[in-house]
Amino acid sequence: MEVINKAKSFTYYRRKVVNIIMLFFSFAAAIITIIPLILIFYYTISQGIAHLNVDFFTKLPTPVGEPGGGMVNAIVGTLILIGIGGAIGIPVGIMTGTYLSEFGKNKFGSLVRFLTDVLSGVPSIVVGVVAYTLVVIPMKHFSALAGGVALAILMIPTITRTTEEMIKLVPHSYREAGLALGIPKWKTTVMIVLKTAWKGIATGILLGLSRAAGETAPLLFTALGNRFWSTNIFQPIASLTVYIYEYSTAPFKDWNDQAWTAALVLIILISLLSLIFRIITRSKYKT
Amino acid sequence: MDIVKDRETFEKVQDYFKKSKEKKSSGFLNKILGTNNLGDIIFERLTLLFAVLVFLLVVFMAWEMYSHSTLSIKQFGWKFLINSTWDPAVTQVFGALPMIFGTMLSSFLGLLIAVPLGLSVAVFLSELAPAWLEKPLSFLTELLAGIPSVIYGLWGIFVLVPWLRDTVEPFLQNEFPNSPFFQGAPYGFGMLAAGLILSIMVLPIISSISRDVLKSVPDTQREAAFALGATRWEVTKIVLSNARSGLFGAIMLGFGRAIGETMAVTMVIGNRAQISASLLDPGYTMASVLANEFTEATTDLYLNALIELALVLFVITIIVNMLAHLLVWSTERKWK
Amino acid sequence: MDMKIHEQSEVAAAVEEIKVHSRENKISVKDLCAYFGKTKVLKNITMDIPSKKVVAIIGPSGCGKSTFLRSINRMHEVVGGTITGSILLDGEDVMKLDPVYLRRKIGMVFQKPNPFPTMSIANNVVAGLKMNGFRNKKALKGIVEKALKQAALWDEVKDNLNDSGANISGGQQQRLCIARTIAVNPEVILMDEPASALDPISTAKVEELIFELKKDFTIIIVTHNMQQAARVSDYTAFFYMGELVEYSDTKKMFTAPDKKQTEDYITGRFG
Asked: What is the rounded CA–CA span in Å between residue B198 and residue B150?
């Protein structure tokens, strides 16, 4: 009896100790995960803020060795690129998402759902290669359009899946109310269901746009880059991300410094984007 | 007076509907399509069209890359995958082996660190953390996933690489002077830096998907275990074993992300097409070759070889992602 | 003698036939069976709904009363159900009508108030008109007022017509849904337990409203509350296990039902 009790209490304490160790380990892991986040933000802000001035937002880049200058062309370029990407990607994503939620309860629907998931895992550089063969080769030169097409392909999976999920969240009773009023199904879907789900869909669009704004790889050989002012979508165009890449890998100290500033501006731009979107999509009524 | 006005408005409504009914029933298209509402049909077909478009897009991507890499495919055949020479300058011989090796090794290193950490974070978030801590922590890990790759690279070049070069790599060489993994000059740039950066980047993916998978395990499983007198960790072990295939899927998704990751890796890996056991040596990945050399490809064969490399990368990521999604789905569906 | 009986029943059948097609009956249901997949939820229902009266349908939950209601305006098929038999609206087979057109003639109020959350009160009322392209602003304004007055909601919301339809109380929401249904000017209104999610005061208001509405509309109301059925309806039908057990004058139904089953249900012995 004694022996059994002893053995029992030993396993009991062992279990207790293992329990505490494992709990502590998982908590420590959560903290460790946060460290790089803090470090990256700390460096981007502290290094980037040194060269953050009005010139950065109003002037063009200067040639090597000449100090100062800004990246106004890259800021505008990034906006144009995500604009083109959105103009193509948003409608395709919303329509496909609507199809999946409204009519996609069949084999083809499952296939498309599966393929959008797979598409979301395709490396962005591969999408860049496709945009190169699709747009750059026929046009025979790099262009903002090619970059926009690449970004659109990257946005489609995010927007499609969020649209589908958000439409599914709209209570069936609204749909029934619409149909019972003698409103055709398509109008019920567009004017009632989509409108009700709009806030969630907008979040998906925002996510797609802000990811696109941070993409570099698919732009390297589509939009290429441009040291001058250009808003022509059929010509190469500058972007913040490509500048960060070029300036950080260049052997010039002042370029390196500006790369940090560009990174800070990019993060600010993405945050602003999310803020503006939140204001636009804020519903008229509290719910 | 009021009644008269009311009647007028309602007559207007009635007239309107009558007209719209006549309009609808007269259309011969409706009879062909077998339904009364043309709008519904158009709407369904239109959304279907876009769904087909997305379906074709994936197929088309593969075809597009294949048709633009025929030169290289003809010239090198399957040898492309096992040849370790990548020489665009002189002999124009292209073999992808060093890049495949570099991609796999760097991703593997990344997972080596990210998997235990990511799973622990997922366990913490889904099983242990109080609600007030779970939300901000989830938010922060998602924020980590939202940082652009090029900013990771920037941080890698100016913070991580100098730290590795001056502190970590000399330390490793001192501690393990005979290990084949830590030979050569400590540049900072190299496989180790790439692996570390990748681990930070795939960690949020692994942790957030694993968290979702764990959350899909119903609470009744936990309650049953608690009722038997299990400790919290023992309960967690049961939940983990229940969610095994889903967690494996989450890791696969992280792997898929790691092999396709371009900018951050390109910026810290050193970009040299060689196969070396030393983690301190520079390497190359499929994605970083594309980022580095695509605009410099002067000959058609060179360009074709690069596009073929993209095709190989595409096929690998598609296979990895398919497996991953099937695994995640199978777990999440099990509990529905 | 035998001959006479035969003749009599033939005459009765003929009278029945005439009744079905006469204007007295707004809706005639004949041999209606409804299915979900292979499950039969309604079994050979035959009943007439007289014009501008309130017909209450009672019965324990799962007896098919909601399905019956949803068969009439073809909402049953929206959730994937099928029906056999016939439902005539003014002598026209509803299965041959365009469902969109049919639902404008037969409005429906649901169990849970479901005003559209993205629209104002005014826009909720005229949603059915606006979305079908009726854009006469002056007329719309008049209709908003009239429908809200008819739904006894006007006085409560007339100063905040532009507020969200989702921000008013549950009882008000349900009356808003009734106003929305009236605004399309249907001929029949189907009500699927319209007061089951409401407090007693709101319930009383909705019941009062039903009493007013029968001047202009034919109303079929499904309820599991027998007192409510007794209060508001002219006729009552008792459904049990997908079958129509008894259908008669409400007063008779609640005082001297023909069938034992009905009596048991009404006196609370089961259900």
From this structure: 12
